[in-house]
Specification:
Chitinase A, domain 3; Thrombin, subunit H; 2 domains; six-stranded antiparallel beta sheet; four-stranded antiparallel beta sheet; 2 helices; about 40% strand
C-alpha cells in the first residue's frame, strides 16, 4: 500500500532494474518513530539491483519517476523479515566471561559473536545465574516499515537519448 504525495508529469524515466537512482528517504516504525533518514544530509545514490537496499525496498521503487514523493508500507516479510523464535537462544554464562568484566551483562546490551561469515550481533534479553538469553533477530524484524521516499533523479542507460524515444 502506498500514499502518493506528489508525482512527476509521467514523461520522465521510470525506475527499472539497473536504474541509477538518487533519493531521500526515511524509515518509520508503525508508531511513526523515525529509524533512519537521509533527509538531514546528502541523498542516497544506488543502482537498483546492486544490493544496497533490501529487495522489498527496491521492488517498491520500481515504476516511480523523478519528482515522486511516496510513503510505501513495506510488510515485515519484505522488509527485515519475520521474528523467529528459533533466533532466541539461551547460552551458558561462561561464554560471556570477558564481556562481563568490561561492562555489566544486562538486558539490552548488544553482544557480538564470531560467525563463519562475519560477526553475529545479538541483544541480551535476560541474564540468569548460569545462562543468558540472547535475541539474534534483526531489531526491526517482525515490523512493517513505512518507506517515505522522494525520488530526486533517475538514470537509465548511459546516454541521454538511450532508453528514450528520440524520434529515430
Amino acid at each position: 500500500m502506498s500514499d502518493l504525495i506528489a508525482s512527476s508529469s509521467g514523461k520522465l524515466e521510470k525506475i527499472i532494474e539497473g536504474s541509477r537512482v538518487s533519493l531521500h528517504f526515511a524509515l518509520l516504525m508503525p508508531n511513526g518513530e523515525e529509524i533512519d533518514t537521509t533527509r538531514r544530509g546528502a541523498p542516497a545514490s544506488l543502482v537498483i539491483g546492486d544490493g544496497n537496499l533490501l529487495p522489498g525496498f527496491e521492488a517498491a521503487l520500481i515504476g516511480l519517476s523523478q519528482g515522486d514523493d511516496v510513503q510505501l508500507l513495506i510488510p515485515a516479510e519484505q522488509a527485515f523479515g519475520p521474528r523467529q523464535e528459533a533466533n532466541v537462544r539461551v547460552l551458558s554464562r561462561s561464554m560471556f566471561e570477558q564481556i562481563d568484566g568490561d561492562e555489566p551483562l544486562e538486558s539490552g546490551l548488544v553482544v557480538s559473536f564470531q560467525a563463519p561469515d562475519g560477526e553475529l550481533p545479538g541483544v541480551v534479553i535476560e541474564v540468569y545465574e548460569e545462562s543468558v538469553k540472547i535475541d539474534f533477530n534483526h531489531p526491526l524484524s517482525g515490523h512493517d516499515i513505512t518507506f517515505d521516499v522522494s525520488i530526486l533523479e533517475v538514470e537509465n542507460g548511459h546516454g541521454e537519448a538511450e532508453g528514450t524515444d528520440a524520434g529515430h
